[in-house]
Amino acid sequence: MTERKPPGVPFDSWVDKQIRDAQERGEFDRLPGAGEPLPAEVDSTYDELWWVRRKLAREGLAVLPPALALRKEAEDALAAAYAAPSERIARKIIEDVNVKIRDMMFKPPPGPPLGKKPYDVEAVVRERRQRRAAAGGDGPGSAV
Fold first, then answer.
1. CB atoms < 10 A from the CB of 21, how many?
2. Which of 17, 30, 79, 129 shows the greatest Cβ crowding within 10 Å of its Cβ?
């Protein structure tokens, strides 16, 4: 457990002592990237949260306002419905995302507006059918 700063000791001195003690214990030895320069950023402007953004990217996380996250999810759902192996699955994908869109329309979260309305399930299925026909047609049983 990290010890607490004793009263009366300047914060800078106490932190420096903590770092020196950790170095003496070898806690900084063999760290990944030791002795290597920091990777150059493509954007030369200073960003004080660069390490947070890099950690999020490395962990595969995204921090979007709820409306923008749902907008992205809706676009992905539409693409998934067009590529679905059957009309039944396409309908299910669109119906599921429509529930979320309607919920957000009536209970708006903080942040930018959603800017989406629920999809017309039958129109999406029709468009899917036309796209698949243009690409070579549906196989048997795909209308299920």
1. 11
2. 129
3-class secondary-structure state, position 73 = helix
Q: Over 90: is that where the pLDDT of 74 sits? A: yes
DSSP conformation class of 76: H
pLDDT above 50: residue 80: yes
Tell me how far CA of residue 106 lies from CA of 45, 47, 97, 117, 138, in angstroms.
Answer: 40, 36, 15, 11, 37
Residue 126: which H helix or E strand, with range? helix 121-134
Q: What is the rounded CA–CA span in Å between residue 48 and residue 91? A: 45
Does the pTM surpass 0.90? The reply is: no
CA within 13 Å, CB half, 63: 7
From the list 76, 80, 82, 78, the residue with the least C-alpha distance to 134 is 82
pLDDT at residue 44 in the model: 63
Per-residue pLDDT at 123: 95
Alpha carbon distance 37, 45 (integer Å): 18
